[in-house]
Amino acid sequence: MREGVTQMQAVAVVTTPSLTVGLLPRRASRTNQMSKLPRNWKIKELSEVATIQTGLAKGKNNLKNPVSLPYLRVANVQDGYFDLSEIKTIEVSSAEIERYRLKPNDVLLTEGGDFDKLGRGHIWRGQIDPCLHQNHIFVVRPNPQILKPEFLTALTASHYGRTYFLSCSKQTTNLASVNSTQLKQFPVLLPPIREQEEIARIVGCWDRAIEQAEKLVVTKTSIKRGLVQQLLSGGKRFAEFGNKAWQEAHFGDFLTESRIPGSNGVDAKKITVKLYGKGVVEKAEKLLGSANTKYHIRRTGQFIYSKLDFLNGAFGIITEQLDGYESTLDLPAFDIDERLDPLWLFYFVSRSHFYKSYANAAKGGRKARRVQPDEFLKTKARFPSIEEQRRIAAVLNACDKEITLLKQQLDALKRQKQGLMQKLLTGQIRVKV
């Protein structure tokens, strides 16, 4: 397969054999596993086709001829890439440098982390030399005549690989880890070396597409952040509004708290407000509320916030889908005057430097994290005309829609990659060599 082909072109060069391959059981015999693979594939334990070494432990004393060198920690080894923004150094005996020194094409795998990160790692290309690794990172050095590092990293990161590591890992509430013995016993599926290369190239097409999509999301998010700062502060104006001064006023000049009595805690259809400007959602109730708790009806277009999490950006506008839902007075809601655009208001208050500035206004100090409606309504701000508000809101809303679409495309690429990897790496789909 040629370099630089698209994802769709990559799919076009694979064929599906009559043979189907399921996920190989952890303790199944090698004979049974082999019977499910294409005839020219093999299966071997990782220790048979690669050397595996553990890393350098910190805090050793009485080192002979110590040298301080850069080394990789678990934080540096991410899922499919290295984070080299912060590289620390460690002291090591001169005689041990070569023992722990990373080499190009080493596959670095962490011993544990979140459940969905088991088997995470990447290929070292000699970005820093010399560079060592700590004892929570395994270095796998494949035999290049039998196993390509690109194929191995794809296999360990796939559903096949992570299922194996999860099945044999030591688990706590939120974390899981594997030891060197379990890593050495990992059953490596071994197509012919040329087929490994083609599979790795196909997976690489998706990797490059995902990387570009991620960069685009970051770029668009940065652009929107700049527009928020400029448009909502008046630092950047539209030509048609450039001569109209913004008017200073209180939020209370445009907002009126709504207290329409509703149901009790048992019968109310409840809403909640997510943090960091992520809006209003239906509340998922695990337990029935108290019949003594009084709720208030909320209407489309109202502004709502959380007293408790005001300083964490818990704001929103009630949508049509949530019209008639209810909240307690811990989530006060406000009718908005026609001189104030609801979407502009949402963008204005959702800026982190705005809501974090309320630390001193919070009743009981920042720790209590409660901002009462009277405190909020007394706050002064500079308000553009309603026409300029709508224009600003439209621009920022268009940015949000574009970012949402890009994130959906990114998620789709990731799902496509995972589905294709599972079939390519287990022989369910074959590539033409």
CATH class of the largest domain: Alpha Beta
Number of helical segments with 4 or more residues:
12
Instruction: Note the overall shape.
Output: elongated
Q: Can you tell me the CATH superfamily of the largest domain? A: DNA methylase specificity domains
Number of DSSP E strands:
25
The appropriate CATH architecture of the largest domain is: Alpha-Beta Complex
Major β-sheet, in short?
Answer: 4 strands, antiparallel
- Give the overall average pLDDT: 84
Would you give the CATH topology of the largest domain? Answer: Adenine-n6-DNA-methyltransferase TaqI, Chain A, domain 2
Euclidean distance between termini CA atoms? 8 Å
Task: Output the structural class.
Answer: alpha+beta
Write down the domain tally.
Answer: 3
Q: How would you describe this protein?
A:
The protein has 433 residues and is α+β, with helices and mostly antiparallel strands. Helix content is 33%, strand content 21%. Helix 8 packs antiparallel against helix 12 and helix 9 packs across helix 12. The protein is elongated and about 75 Å long. The protein has 3 domains: 112 residues, Bipartite methylase S protein (Helix Hairpins, Orthogonal Bundle), CATH 1.10.287.1120; 149 residues, DNA methylase specificity domains (Adenine-n6-DNA-methyltransferase TaqI, Chain A, domain 2, Alpha-Beta Complex), CATH 3.90.220; 137 residues, DNA methylase specificity domains (Adenine-n6-DNA-methyltransferase TaqI, Chain A, domain 2, Alpha-Beta Complex). It contains 12 helices and 25 strands. The N terminus is likely disordered. A 4-stranded antiparallel sheet has the order 3-10-6-8. It has a 4-stranded antiparallel sheet with strand order 15-23-20-21, with helices on one face. Strands 5-4-9 form a 3-stranded mixed sheet, with no helix packed on it.
